[in-house]
Amino acid sequence: MRIVLVGPPGAGKGTQAAFLAKNLSIPHISTGDLFRANISQGTELGKQAKAFMDAGDLVPDEVTIGMAKDRMEQPDAVNGFLLDGFPRNVSQAEALDVMLQAEGMKLDAVLDLEVEEDEVVKRIAGRRICRNDSSHVFHVTYAPAKTAGVCDTCGGELYQRGDDSEATVRNRLEVYHTQTEPIIDYYKAQGLLVTIPALGEVADVTKRAMDALKK
């Protein structure tokens, strides 16, 4: 299957993408992984992306599209893939359609993980990270530390990352509404959109998505 996963920041796309890709035996292709791989390997596209990022500029669509195209042409993606973070806007969605059509392929479904905006803010703004080890992650509501501000594992100080502040999260949501949300209507018009309520346990959300795909 060839699937695109969309949803606002904090909807759990990365977590769901990993589970769905495993259940469907297809590679999980995320924009973040594409950028990291191309930059670390020193590919031409990676060099171009790094130059824009170092200058504080957005990476142009053509660079992102080029990376995605290269990845989708790898042998492990011959029977399908799950795209996470790409396409990010309508221009990229149109480019993806052109790429697939050129290969005689098409998308099977676009899964939209639906979460209320206030829940997104609560999920992200409530995260607390250990200063000693960033893999130690807590949440003031869903997974609180036994002692407020202190890591259960190593006793390190827990803090809120700058990009997890409520103001930053709401700004990220505004960017999502402006740039990415329009692809929902784009795919709805093609009859590909499947909306998945993303509240609840991870396994329950995965089951909803798998059940929807079977239909």
What does this structure look like?
It is found in: Cytoplasm. AMP binds at residues 31, 36, 57-59, 85-88, 92, 161, 172. Belongs to the adenylate kinase family. Monomer. Residues 30-59 are annotated as: NMP. This protein is an alpha/beta fold. The chain has a domain at 2-115 and 180-214: P-loop containing nucleotide triphosphate hydrolases (Rossmann fold), CATH 3.40.50. Helices cover 48% and strands 15% of the residues. It contains 9 helices and 8 strands. It has a 5-stranded parallel sheet, sandwiched between helices. Strands 6-5-7 form a 3-stranded antiparallel sheet. Helix 2 (31-41) packs across helix 4. It is globular and about 55 Å long. The two termini are 13 Å apart.
Secondary-structure map:
Blueprint: E1 2-6, H1 13-24, E2 28-30, H2 31-41, H3 44-54, H4 61-72, E3 81-84, H5 90-102, E4 109-114, H6 117-125, E5 127-130, E6 137-139, E7 158-159, H7 166-180, H8 182-189, E8 193-197, H9 202-214
Parallel strand pairs: 1-3, 1-4, 2-3, 4-8
Antiparallel strand pairs: 5-6, 5-7
Protein name: Adenylate kinase
Catalytic activity: AMP + ATP = 2 ADP
Binding site for AMP: 31, 36, 57-59, 85-88, 92, 161, 172
